[in-house]
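### Sample
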Amino acid sequence: MCPAARGDGGSHRRRPHRRGHHRRRWCGRRRHLGGGRRHHHRAALSAREVPRRAAGRHRRRRHRHPHPLPVTPVEAGPGDAAAVVSLWQAAGLTRPWNDPAADFARALAAADSTVLVLRDGRALIGSVMVGYDGHRGWVYYLAVAPDHRRHGLGRTLMGAAESWLRARGCPKIQLMVRAGNADALAFYDRLGLAPQDVVTLGRFLDPDPA
């Protein structure tokens, strides 16, 4: 029998076993697949760094506005007309069939209505129109400047409107939201306002409201 067939010679000779050979191959495979102590140690370090990075992001968010935002709305004056109308337009509250400048002027001229505003320095950043008809209190034109949203200013304005109505003995506040305005409905729902089982009807008294 030839040496190759017996397994004791030729190209098929079995290599001698070297101690630790398989272990080195397996450890190398683990390192190739992302395992091993070195990678676990690196992941652990990254995990400890995450809270510090997150804290840094929160610190940057807190310092977005260098000055504290105003928290007390005040009544607007005639000189605020242009800024208030511009805010309403930026918030998408105006419609072609309503004259916002005329709405503002009427609210200030009547004894049972007003427009409350928020200021950040000289800039007008929020408004709400509020009125009392002797039966219900009504809110219109709640607006916050786009770059000042998500800071609770809308809630502050609504709170001021409610305080204005309570001071006049108004028992209930109501408002209207245009159909399809899901964001506004969600906002008022968080404030505790609920849909009413009524249908709003109306028509213009002026044949040509424009």
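Strands lie at 74-75, 113-120, 123-132, 137-144, 173-175. This sample (GNAT family acetyltransferase) is used throughout the tutorial notebook.
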